[in-house]
Amino acid sequence: MTFSLELSPDLIHIRDWVHEFAADVIRPAAAEWDEREETPWSIIQEAAKVGLYSMEMFAEQAAEPSGLGMTVVLEEMFWGDAGIALSILGTGLAAASLAANGTPEQLGEWLPQMFGTVNEPRVAAFCSSEPGAGSDVGAILSRARYDESTDEWVLNGTKNWATNGGIANVHIVVASVHPELGSRGQASFIIPPGAKGLRQGQRFRKHGIRASHTAEIVLDDVRIPSGLIVGGEEKFDARIAKVREGKKAAGQAAMATFERTRPTVGAMAVGVARAAYEYARDYACEREQFGRKIGEFQGVAFKLADMKARIDAARLLVYRAAWMARNGKTFESAEGSMAKLVASETAVYVTDEAIQILGGNGYTRDYPVERMHRDAKIFTIFEGTSEIQRLVMARAITGLPIPERFRCTSSR
Asked: 128-156: buried (b, 16+ CB within 10 Å) or exposed (e) per residue?
């Protein structure tokens, strides 16, 4: 059996195709949409036209045998611009939740509605975090109760930090059905388009990723058919029965989603870090001070060396975690959290050093590293803060217990 770290010809083709779109379409528009702080629907439509934003593309890359399909796509997209890329690919979190746990009938009906059509693209939102429940998903207060008289679920609560929240065609909402069971009593629900009682609350103005829409979602007696509990009622009831009997059951709703998406978040961070590094490298090879290229000075040269080494190390951790997830390997040392932690902190470090290399220019909006630095910070926060990733890793490494309320992964 041969061992190789080379990407397959198919992955190289995908990488180069996405890179071309990022270079030609996303990057030239990055500064404009960052300033506008609006969803770039025109660019989402361009992505749909070329097949980059489609249910088929997501499915093909998720099924890619090495597990690296989506990581390659995400790195290139976020190399273009984090805010626009998240607007285009933010639907993936909701789609991953449905794909991981939904019934075949639910996938067939709702996945297409998440993406819309080439002429009229749509987006989806995954709603887990709340004002008092970010990383502590066990503290979720949103409630779902079953109304036997109408055969409907009734949802009430408020969700925070929902990417595409309020503008989504389909919302996937995590709510507690059996609060006494903590996170094990939660389920995910499909909220269809036009559902009465769902409205957008506050729209958040953010430090970075400004082209990506983030908002509060308010659920006020939202009624949905009983069949819209993700995975179906029978599966949920069976899981709850196991929990009440003290047996092991499948993970709760939010956890199952973030387990699948954590390596991909690392890939996003690597893309941003690489973009900043490449810009700083090229700048250092052109900018002159004291009659020499600044890249000739050891202080700058060593910065570039450290930036490159950290990016490559982060990418390898992301690739390993993505390969393990795709091939059913257990994260015995929390390799998914490890990849996300290192990649996210690498992005913050590299973008900070890029500004330092550019000096005063780097601190202005005339140069893209300022925007990249603002964008990078979110990766140490959403889908699990760096502190939470360290807690998850520590528990896996030592085997020592961490209280249930700290076994969580989302600030999103």
From this structure: bbbeebbbbbbebebebeeeeeeebbbbb
Tokens standing for 114? 């998440």
pLDDT band at 8 (very low <50, low <70, confident <90, very high): very high
Tens digits of per-residue pLDDT, 25-83?
999 999 999 999 999 999 999 999 999 999 999 999 988 999 999 999 999 999 999 99
- Taking every pair of C-alpha atoms in the chain, what is the biggest distance, in angstroms? 82
Give, to the nearest 10 degrees, the angle between helix 253-286 and helix 369-376.
160
Instruction: Tell me the two tokens of residue 323.
Output: 């390969």
What residues are paired with 125 via a beta bridge? Answer: 171
DSSP string, 338-365: HHHHHHHHHHHHHHHHHHHHHGGGGGST
3-state secondary structure at position 173: strand
**Does the pLDDT of residue 306 top 60, yes or no?**
yes
> Cβ(209)–Cβ(34) under 8 Å?
no
φ, ψ of residue 291 in degrees (nearest 5): 80, 10
Secondary structure (3-state) at 168: coil
Can you tell me the distance from the alpha carbon of 254 to that of 140, in angstroms, rounded to the nearest whole number?
10
Q: Which amino acid is residue 360, in one-letter code?
A: G
Q: How far apart are CA 183 and CA 202, in angstroms?
A: 26
To the nearest 10 degrees (0 to 180), the angle between helices 82-89 and 41-49 is: 60
What tokens appear for 119 in the block? 């002429």
- Catalytic annotation, residues: 383
Between the CA of residue 372 and those of 58, 76, 302, 411, what are the distances in Å? 25, 14, 21, 21
SS3 call for 408: coil
Within 22-103, where are the H helices? 30-36, 41-49, 55-62, 69-80, 82-89, 91-101
| Confidence grade of residue 411 (pLDDT, cut at 50, 70, 90) | very low
Q: Give me the helix-helix angle, 298-326 and 253-286, nearest 10°.
A: 150
Classify 196 as helix, strand or coil. Answer: coil
- Rounded CA-CA distance 262/264 in Å is 5
Which two structure tokens, joined as six digits, stand for 285?
């090879």
pLDDT in tens, 148-200: 999 999 999 999 999 999 999 999 999 999 999 888 899 999 999 999 999 99
Sole residue written with tokens 């003290």: 246
Could you read off the pLDDT of 356-407 as tens digits, one per residue? 999 999 999 999 999 999 999 999 998 889 999 999 999 999 998 766 444 4
